[in-house]
Amino acid sequence: MIDHKDFMHGAALVAIADSEMFTALNRASVKYGHYVVNHDRHLFIKYNEGKGPGDYFFTFSGEDKERITSASASLVFAVLVCGNEVVTGLTRDELSQLITLSAFHLGVDLVR
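Below the sequence we write its predicted structure tokens.
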């Protein structure tokens, strides 16, 4: 049986694979949803079913934030799958404007 989370992550991965610049996709770590695209772009995919516009919340645990900040590549993205409405990407810098990514704040944060 195919997990629902695999369908949700698939929405993000298809959007990436459809890009003319796409050449490779690999799992980056044991963390589900952490991928490397084109050997130099780290993606951290999150999904939420929500109930419609403005009702999508994404949880970033201390472990998530540690992986995001420790990724050696300068091209690091949080990819947010908003139900069946939209897939959007945030750079690490954009994400850091929404939540605290520092090693001193490894608690859970929500992005809305």
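The CA atoms of residues 70 and 103 lie 10 Å apart.
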